[in-house]
Amino acid sequence: MHKYIYLKKTVVYTILAMILIVCCVGCSKDNSTTTEDEVKAITRTYSIAVDCVLTEEEINEIVEVISNRVSYYDVDGKVTLKDIDANGNPFIEISIAYGTDEEVFDRLTCQGMLYFISDYDTDEEKIWLGNENINKIEAKIVENMYTEYIVEIIFDKRGGEIFEECTTALTGEQLYIVYDDQVLLAPTIVEPVPDGVTIINNFESFEDAEEFAMTIESGTLEYKLDNVN
């Protein structure tokens, strides 16, 4: 009888030990998976190119714009503030999914400033419209004789009035569409445009057009960001 009880206890202890081993192995796998996911994120750190201390509100605006852009590429992406630089401003750390094109970081941190300018890069240069005049921006596919990828821009009420005035004054002349100091297009205005709508049509793919529209819609960065990695 005692021998039977002893054997029964031994079997129970053996089963419990096996359960503990399985649980430990399971926990180990879960931890390694989490670590693996963290390792797979690409992280870049940036400093704000400004020689004064920014307010908390200004910092939050920068983080909000970048976060809006990050979520387009990676819903689990992160934007965090790290340490303090020599000017008293925090470094900005951006983490997105591994395997993402390195050029994505350029789009995440660009200022995203779009201007409509006459007499560009001359003494007579005049900025007519900018991001603040845009009410809606959307990437579209246009099927004519061939497929065209465009971004349609609809100005707000005041922007529409300025655009009509601009295109009236510049009929027969060029209007430069400038994005972060790079000329995207310089069309010659054929006639006044009264409906407050214009398009940019030099995109190679719908993804390019969509990324551009997303960047403009996400907001602008007042200051440049420098990669410190």
Your description of this structure?
- This protein is an alpha+beta fold and 229 residues long.
- 39% of the residues lie in helices and 28% in strands.
- It has helices at residues 2-39, 56-73, 103-109, 157-169, 206-218; strands at residues 42-48, 78-82, 91-96, 114-118, 126-130, 134-143, 147-155, 176-179, 182-185, 197-203, 225-227.
- The longest helix is centred in the first third of the chain and has 38 residues, at 2-39.
- The radius of gyration is 28 Å and the shape is globular.
- It starts with a helix and ends with a strand.
Question: Which SSEs are present, and which pair or pack?
Answer:
Blueprint: H1 2-39, E1 42-48, H2 56-73, E2 78-82, E3 91-96, H3 103-109, E4 114-118, E5 126-130, E6 134-143, E7 147-155, H4 157-169, E8 176-179, E9 182-185, E10 197-203, H5 206-218, E11 225-227
Antiparallel strand pairs: 1-3, 1-11, 2-3, 4-5, 4-8, 6-7, 7-10, 8-9
Helix pairs in contact: 2-3
